[in-house]
């Protein structure tokens, strides 16, 4: 044990040096280190029986990843995958966007079966019944997009089973008023060499949020007051989605896979406000009625051919289209504002990969990844029935992205205890933004060397150290590149000046991608009884950091008075680091002095500590946007002896913190807490009933935004948004 401890300490000290000397390589191994064998060959492509545990899949992975299968997906009877993700270590869901390691939207790559999720894809509208497992990868790999500064979340959809199967999952979800139904019916069949699965989900939702706002202002007599407002927002809607999949096994060496995905939904959001008095300033929100639709279609095809025992070739192609429309109306008796519009995203993808076994220890792969995307947006806004900004009203704006990537990697089994994967990936991204007064072309290249090392401290791989040195990037969202100017709805006239907390918005076609160089080191221990402990460290250096910056713009031909405008900009460099721990397993194995080994109690705990610094902003609190100082979670589930009943609970907590967003603006975020409980009764191997409650004893989502200095100086907005408990009753049946 002493020798192992010394060896681990030496490795942790030496890995950064080793990583730097090999920084021109990428590591993306696809299998475990394995044991010695007289001859290796590329695996056949086939569907196999037997289910490996989540820990087995995690332990055998070539890069550091977390794997969550059906146990985690089904535990709380969730009706959407976003509710599952928010309980996982190191992951949060903020305003529908998935975040890892406390990093904001866009730093996390979301994949569907290994391919980037299409525009318009909504995790909160995907039923866990359509998913086989979730894989969370901490470091970029050469054969996947390098747009994963924080990491990647790969949602693996269910594959067709080997036998006929018909599953039904129904649920009632209560938040306010009355329960809303949802359900998924999955039909799977196998006909000779062809197998397919056809899931169809339908869902409805309704919820209510309460918002209390305070801002300094003046009353009708110009006396200083604190303006108050209370708002009730009712959100409701419905939708459907499906992810059909077909596998055709042409031979033992050749397969074809077809995967489709569609979502369609309708939403409404109605807000009613009550002001605490009559105020001359500031202008507060009006009551509003808003509704819209979204639609997403995607089709992918993959052909895989094992040419011989040492060569394999894969081809992929895909097409996708996402549409959205909206009709937003403010109920202002003097100057009602109405905005009608929509956008369409279309895209094509094509990729290929050739793998060659070289000797007994190397598998060399080369491939390409191409993507073409175009977004078109139109919007018509009227104020009191008169067109707003006539030169832009109803005119189409367009943005295009052309991405071309090529990679080379070598998976190297050094010996039974060591494995490595070396590689490089280069991506060139060209963007075009066009519209009224906008015609901008921009291009950038990202060269990504990547290195992954695995060291098994015992031959069975139950104790190991992983290390990665990666180069990744965050590409601007295509909507950020749109050059359309949009006036703030509280100040809809172009002839009046707004304030810094109610800025106009405009895109920035000249945005460059953020570049990140990262180091990851992790120690993992897999216990004999199924328990697992991990301790990891990460660091990222980020260049060309993108942040929304609010400035006071001078009058122009479009807007004749000075206006505060918020636009995304490359402002600085930044660094972020963190320590992540995770522990889970049976109570008798983790705490043998307190629990009997036969006790059917499983425990889970995780703690993540984050630090970051934006270099051009003065401290303190010049952290990356919305990154908390730490977050932690605790959970358990217990199966009663002699009863088909299992109960459990999960608690996720994040403390309050302050973020300096710009030189003059800061954001205070209050603490958050998510407490979920569940109970499951198993009637038979084919039927079970779950009752769960999410967000028990909810805390308000409270924020304080402060502006100091300049013409908009001394202003603030205090907003306290109330949340509600969600109750779910879910029935699972295998028919």
Whole-number mean pLDDT: 87
The CATH topology is given as Maltoporin, Chain A
Instruction: Please state the overall shape, judged from the principal axes of the Cα atoms.
Output: globular
Radius of gyration: 27 Å
Provide the structure class.
mainly beta
Percentage of residues assigned to helices: under 10%
Largest sheet: 31 strands, mixed
Distance between the termini: 53 Å
Number of strands: 38
CATH architecture: Beta Barrel
Low-confidence stretches: 1-39, 44-49
Q: Tally the helices.
A: 5
CATH superfamily (homologous) name: TonB-dependent receptor, beta-barrel domain
In terms of DSSP E residues, the strand content is over 45%
Main CATH class: Mainly Beta
How many discrete structural domains? 1
Keywords: Cell outer membrane, Membrane, Receptor, Signal, TonB box, Transmembrane, Transmembrane beta strand, Transport
Protein name: TonB-dependent receptor
Pfam family, one: TonB_dep_Rec_b-barrel
Membrane topology: Multi-pass membrane protein
Quick overview of this protein structure:
The protein has a single domain (17-165, 185-734), classed as TonB-dependent receptor, beta-barrel domain (Maltoporin, Chain A). The model is unreliable at 1-39 and 44-49 (pLDDT under 50). It is 6% helix and 60% strand.
